[in-house]
């Protein structure tokens, strides 16, 4: 097998190879045809390049994962046709989560051998399998084709870090070949996103991540060693902004690439970012930041947990229901990021922020007209939200762990 | 007619606004309804109009105005 794994969208030259290899797919779509066989071979080759390096253990882990999840989905699908017990559903979800849980446990040094089960993108692919199980349970997904499921799971443009698509949406897109005018427009959008992504990831991401971040980190560590508290705080603030900008431009750039490449394949992979730093409150932020993750959590965790709590009448007060649901929602999100204190603290921080945000919105609703909306109040709101978000990213970055 | 009155009554309760003459008022992006209000909407519709709405079926773009909600409810009834 070849040497190291090839990171998706890792360098500008990657795109040249990727797009050249896609030319048959693009030309065929332009003439209204989908080259399924070529796309399958193309996907296989890219999976090999992406996961087949370093002794191919990621490739083996990915293959084993897909077989395992297909067995779980298949078994639950067969069961669900006849019966619908809640505990069976819960067991199916739990079993489908076992690989991810083991890999996350593998981040702890004592259990590091478990990390061999991991592969790039396992956190993201798991959303897809859980979503399909939930839709079987809801009865919104009845007849499914195994090949379509595997195609959805292994859709190459989004395999490593999303955006997280939904099965029915993806399948409908894949089966409906756009007409020439629509496809031409889609290719135009793809080119725009590709260039925007290049600016984000390789220029702005480079400035903040590769150029500024190491310098700020070095200064921060120096301040920490000599015990200069004033300088330490100053450098922490600098780190907070630099890291936040790096996180955004790197991830938004990557997301734009994934969406652009999907578009070239005639698939409208949903957007992940919508000017998140213009949010005027935390709720607004979660409708703009890492949107496919946030909406997945909204639809599959928040809404279900709160509906369940309301139906079971666990709380008298509906405000308490929403608060409990936020807590569950963001804690699960924290654990999904990884089993470290700072990811979980990040989850708790956002749960608290959104609960406080709700108190404020209710207060404002009761006192309508007390504060007139103006460019000033909007500016203050955006400023406060921006700093709250950046602070949460400071927690998320893990740098605080190195200062303890 | 029962559907229409109930849907408007539920929406008035959740949004704090009378939408009776605005069947095409957008509900989510306009900020009138958040996720919690959406959950309450699903529950109220299920209780009062005797429909079953799986959350997987709740595609926001198909439920984002009073008129669309009525169409969806009628289809599920």
Textual characterization of the structure:
- The complex is a heterodimer of chains A (404) and B (77).
- By secondary structure, chain A is mostly helical.
- Chain A has helices spanning 12-30, 36-51, 57-82, 86-105, 122-138, 146-153, 167-175, 180-226, 229-264, 282-286, 291-311, 318-337, 341-366, 375-397, 399-403.
- Chain A starts with 11 loop residues before the first helix and ends with a helix.
- Chain B is mainly α and 77 residues long.
- Chain B has one domain (2-76): ACP-like (Non-ribosomal Peptide Synthetase Peptidyl Carrier Protein, Chain A, Orthogonal Bundle).
- Chain B contains three helices and no strands.
- Chain A: Pathway: Cell wall biogenesis; lipoteichoic acid biosynthesis.
- Chain A: InterPro entries: Ac/AlaTfrase_AlgI/DltB, DltB, MB_O-acyltransferase, MBOAT_fam.
List the keywords.
heterodimer; A: 404 residues; mainly alpha; 3 domains; 15 helices; 74% helix; 0% strand; B: 77 residues; Non-ribosomal Peptide Synthetase Peptidyl Carrier Protein, Chain A; 3 helices; 52% helix
